[in-house]
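Sanity check. The docking grid for zinc ion depends on where the pocket ends up, so I'm generating a full predicted complex first rather than guessing from homology. Inputs follow.
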Amino acid sequence: MASHKCPGCGEGRVPAHMLACNKCWFRLPKCLRDDIVFSWRHDHENHRHFVADAIEWFVENSRSPR
Ligand SMILES: [Zn+2]
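Predicted complex below; grid placement will be based on this.
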């Protein structure tokens, strides 16, 4: 099964269809989560931009791991 690293904590077992692990996903501000969830269903064109925003948020709001 495809998986990738969580952009928030570096956890390496995030399923490919999810942006971040559960813990980090719920750290994201609700407005960002709503944009991602909505665009995933209804706005594929812009989805990757919202995902990029969220990853940027993680970069700015995460302490560098170890
Ligand atoms: Zn995480």
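Relevant for the grid: DSSP finds three helices and two strands in the chain.
Also worth noting: The chain has one domain: 3-61.
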